[in-house]
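F.,

This is the one I mentioned.
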């Protein structure tokens, strides 16, 4: 009997996704994150038919997820509709779909809404939370890799605080007002700092039923320092800022179990907490059809220095999902915005040269530095040989992030919110729109 393959599941998909006829080569880009949009922006005037596919109809500004999660911003301030962004791009088409599988043998992409063929395929599918196989933590904890994750955290935090005001059980109140953040990278320290500011400035006003010191924030980091990807100076300053905000930082410690009530660490410590936020790792996500030999550490796709997936003539990978192997980057580049944007820009030059029969150049990453904020007026910066922290670093962080947000309206909304918060120490989005209920959907291979 013939062994069933995954392609059998698509036999019912007999219709192609409707696209305008074009005499130009078609490039299909899966994923509208920083990398995908950078590629689109730099190819929008070329003689190509560009098809952007994403399971969402909007771009998400990931660096500010934590501010939505901690009630500082509304979600629509950091998302932007693709169709509005692509308005006026005559050679760009957006299709809302979940990509299931890639068949390179016949240059076909299969989605939940039909199939389409390509001349060039670009995987810019990003990453998702990596719980490292710890199923109970994945079940009860909350990641921070999607705008929905941010809303889940916000709703759960506010519901827990409301429940803490109701309960007469002191032990339950402690668990409801305790927050554990796992991972001492930028997302972890920024989330912990924002939670601490919420406790210090919002809790006493909104919840006079119990003292603010009942809300404990724990930051758990497996290595010996926070922000280990930045300089030792940045790590030391960040640790100082966090301690000044009364965040309890646990270094050289890992979380090994969580049942929704009790956090257990490798060192044998137990912490009662109804909320665990996991920022300790990510892994690449991409559809079926890519050979296992091309998948490396972190579930990322290995490419050569020209961003091409080995063994494929017309398939490329960029952004968080790609590990670009070269002499200068044997381990790949950090899974942050700058490498993704630069790869998108460089791939546009590669495709342009391929179309015109010109030589192509290998990708070289230019590190523009790193920034992280730990609350208002507190940030750290590694900008080449300049390594500093404090108010000036926070101003640079604010400026860089504000100008990077897509859309004038979004820039204005975020800027106004930050300005109000700067003078009032207030957060204006403390609304429970829907009861918290963690999604149980399996989104594996859905892009």
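My design for it:
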């Amino acid at each position: 009997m013939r062994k069933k393959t995954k392609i059998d599941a698509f036999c019912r998909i007999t219709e192609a996704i409707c696209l305008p006829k074009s005499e130009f080569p078609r490039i299909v880009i899966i994923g509208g994150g920083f990398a995908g949009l950078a590629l689109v922006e730099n190819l929008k005037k070329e003689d190509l038919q560009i098809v952007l596919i994403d399971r969402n109809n909007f771009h998400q500004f990931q660096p500010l997820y934590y501010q939505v999660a901690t009630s500082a911003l509304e979600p629509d301030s950091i998302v932007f509709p693709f169709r509005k962004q692509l308005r006026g791009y005559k050679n760009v088409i957006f299709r809302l779909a979940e990509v299931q599988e890639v068949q390179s043998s016949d240059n076909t992409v299969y989605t939940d809404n039909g199939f389409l063929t390509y001349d060039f395929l670009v995987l810019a599918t990003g990453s998702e939370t990596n719980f490292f196989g710890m199923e109970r933590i994945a079940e009860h904890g909350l990641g921070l890799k999607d705008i929905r994750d941010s809303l889940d955290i916000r709703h759960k935090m506010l519901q827990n605080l409301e429940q803490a005001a109701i309960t007469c059980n002191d032990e339950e109140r402690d668990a409801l007002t305790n927050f554990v953040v796992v991972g001492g990278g930028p997302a972890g320290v920024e989330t912990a700092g924002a939670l601490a500011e919420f406790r210090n400035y919002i809790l006493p006003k909104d919840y006079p039923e119990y003292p603010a010191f009942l809300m404990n924030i724990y930051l758990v980091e497996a290595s010996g320092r926070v922000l280990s990807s930045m300089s030792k100076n940045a790590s030391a300053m960040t640790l100082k800022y966090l301690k000044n905000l009364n965040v309890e930082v646990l270094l050289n410690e890992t979380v090994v179990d969580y049942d929704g009530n009790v956090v257990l660490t490798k060192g044998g410590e137990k912490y009662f907490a109804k909320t665990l936020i996991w920022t300790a790792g990510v892994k690449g996500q991409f559809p079926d059809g890519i050979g296992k030999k091309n998948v490396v550490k972190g579930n990322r796709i290995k490419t050569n220095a020209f961003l091409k997936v080995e063994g494929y003539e017309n398939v490329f990978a960029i952004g968080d999902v790609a590990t670009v192997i070269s002499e200068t980057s044997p381990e790949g580049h950090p899974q942050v915005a700058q490498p993704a944007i630069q790869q998108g820009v460089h791939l546009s030059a590669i495709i342009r040269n391929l179309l015109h029969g010109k030589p192509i150049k290998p990708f070289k990453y230019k590190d523009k530095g790193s920034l992280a904020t730990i609350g208002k007026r507190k940030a750290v910066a590694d900008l080449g040989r300049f390594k500093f922290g404090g108010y000036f670093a926070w101003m640079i962080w604010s400026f860089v992030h504000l100008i990077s947000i897509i859309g004038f309206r979004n820039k204005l909304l975020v800027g106004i919110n930050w300005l109000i918060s700067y003078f009032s120490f207030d957060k204006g989005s403390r609304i429970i729109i829907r009861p918290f209920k963690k999604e149980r959907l399996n989104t594996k291979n859905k892009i």
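DSSP finds eleven helices and 25 strands in the chain.

Talk soon.
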